[in-house]
Design a protein that fits this description.
The complex is a heterotrimer of chains A (169), B (174) and C (144).
Chain A: H1 3-14, H2 16-23, H3 25-53, H4 62-65, H5 69-89, H6 91-95, H7 98-128, H8 136-158
Helix pairs in contact in A: 2-3, 2-5, 3-5, 3-8, 7-8
Chain B: H1 2-9, H2 11-18, H3 20-48, H4 64-84, H5 86-89, H6 93-119, H7 139-171
Helix pairs in contact in B: 2-3, 2-4, 3-4, 3-7, 6-7
Chain C: H1 2-29, E1 40-50, E2 57-63, E3 69-75, H2 79-85, H3 89-92, E4 98-105, E5 112-119, E6 125-127, H4 131-141
Parallel strand pairs in C: 3-5
Antiparallel strand pairs in C: 1-2, 1-4, 2-3, 4-5, 5-6
Classes of the chains: A mainly alpha (169), B mainly alpha (174), C alpha+beta (144).
Chain lengths: 169, 174, 144
């Protein structure tokens, strides 16, 4: 492993957050509860938005359905914060876990997909104020979004299957 | 109890209980189903409470198949997970609490939906083109929405505790 | 109207409490916390093994000084760890036989713990778990 990476992982390990979580495992449990709630908020928001873009509930303007986006963002941020806590608990363990790596890669791709949508379709919809139709590209992005985020959940659940030591479920 | 042991002895149960992938896969499916049903219902609850009011409440009618899909995914994966350690789960208080919460949440959601339809039946008509009519939910509906959120979130909390309590029970000779 | 508002507030408060307090309390009550810095070597006769996910459980009796028998219950790590170490619980464990276990004991002092090493009657040894205690476990089992 490159020395820089090792140093970074060690840094994460030695943070107050990492130390505290390792010595107070109830925090890990609480974090998992919040992580699951976060994922429900994220997917609830994404399902409503992406399914609408794909053509469901056509009488709702796209702009209206995007009002649900903050719910998804809150879910994502909640999971980002709890995720950082989990990572600091055992950075080396997660780093060498294939399921964790794939999960992170999928999140990155999902994020890029979301950015693309924001700077193309979202802008166009905001400009036209109350559009009902979506382009083929937008539909593709929405389908990809759903596929990617559900895959994130799948690989998140596979993390434990690749863990070596006393995993806290 | 005889039928619990019988459930545990089924090949499918054994696969979930002992194989690396069976268990992880069941949990993955369970999480995906949870995301669909709890996610969609939470958004509905928030809408009833007044958030994202630009969306007609009745539009959520179109999303119910996806919520049901999530529910059935969880019913099936849940049944398999239950069967794999049935005799231990029936004595597991978080599991029992989770089941109670889900039944209560289901009833609450049904009640909420009925309340919404009663208040504004025309808006829920299949051919309704009302994309401007925005419903402000009744006080009862709002209370049901809060109750629904509380119950679904509680189900998640109890679900997370199942493994811990089972672990404790086994280690301490129960 | 006001009654409903109070009811709603009560529900929110109850859920919030549940969300935070329950995982905390339940976690204090259960001994999911093992002292992974310690390794204890025990020799005992197998009484029961439960091969279930996510952890399997091994129960064995240790006969101490004065013929005092203590019943131990330990949990194994994730199935992947066992698999990677080359151990099949189903094939290796037979009730009635004597095994050597290396465990990380529970913090609460009960005869329970986390298995980090095992030596079978035929002499084969396996170690698994966090890297920090694999080395220590290897020393104790005198194994590979």
């Amino acid at each position: 492993m490159a020395n820089d990476m090792k140093a970074l992982l060690q840094f994460a390990h030695d943070t107050w957050l990492g130390d505290y979580t390792r010595h107070n495992s109830w925090l890990f449990t609480l974090g998992l509860v919040l992580h699951f709630i976060g994922l429900c908020l994220l997917m609830g928001g994404m399902l409503v938005i992406d399914l609408r873009i794909l053509g469901l509930a056509k009488r709702v303007p796209i702009g209206s359905v995007l009002a649900v986006l903050p719910v998804a963002i809150v879910g994502f941020v909640l999971n980002l914060l709890t995720g950082i806590m989990f990572f600091c608990f055992d950075p080396f363990g997660y780093w060498r876990n294939p399921a964790f790596n794939i999960k992170m890669a999928l999140i990155l791709i999902a994020g890029l997909n979301a950015l693309w949508f924001t700077f193309t379709e979202h802008r166009r919809l905001a400009a036209t104020r109350g559009g009902f139709n979506t382009s083929g590209a937008a539909k593709l992005s929405a389908a990809a979004s759903l596929f990617l985020w559900f895959s994130v959940i799948l690989f998140g659940r596979l993390i434990v299957a690749f863990q070596g030591s006393s995993s806290l479920f | 109890m005889g039928w619990l042991s019988w459930l545990e002895s089924l090949p499918l149960s054994d696969w979930v209980a002992t194989s690396d992938w069976g268990y992880a896969l069941m949990l993955a499916i369970h999480s995906i189903g949870m995301a669909a049903i709890v996610g969609l219902l939470l958004v509905l609850d928030f809408r009833v409470l007044g958030y994202a009011s630009a969306i007609p409440i009745s539009a959520f009618r179109n999303f119910t198949p996806y919520a049901w899909a999530g529910f059935f995914l969880n019913l099936i994966s849940g049944a398999l997970l239950f069967a794999s350690t049935a005799s231990r789960l029936v004595n597991n208080w978080p599991f029992l609490a989770k089941m109670a919460c889900i039944i209560a949440a289901g009833a609450t959601t049904y009640w909420l939906w009925r309340e919404l339809r009663t208040r504004s039946p025309s808006d829920f008509e299949a051919d309704s083109h009302s994309n401007v009519a925005l419903i402000i939910a009744s006080p009862l509906a709002k209370t049901l929405a809060v109750l629904s959120t509380a119950l679904w979130l509680s189900a998640i909390v109890f679900g997370r505790l199942i493994a811990y309590v089972m672990d404790h029970a086994i280690l301490n000779g129960q | 109207m006001k009654k409903l508002a109070m009811l709603n507030l009560g529900l929110v408060a109850a859920t919030g409490t549940l969300l935070v307090a329950l995982p905390v309390c339940a976690h204090h009550a259960v001994n999911a916390q093992f002292d992974v810095t310690k390794n204890v070597l025990l020799s005992g006769e197998l009484t029961k093994v439960e091969i279930i996910n996510p952890h399997s459980y091994i129960h064995f009796d240790v006969t101490g000084p004065g013929k005092k028998v203590t019943s131990w219950s330990i949990e194994t790590g994730a199935p992947g760890a066992l698999r990677r170490a080359g151990l099949s619980l189903r094939d290796a464990l037979k009730v009635g036989q004597t095994y050597k276990f290396v465990i990380c004991p529970s913090r609460n002092g009960t005869p329970t713990g986390l298995m980090s090493g095992i030596t079978l009657p035929d002499g084969r040894s396996f170690t698994f778990g966090a890297e920090t205690n694999v080395e220590a476990a290897k020393d104790l089992t005198g194994g590979n």
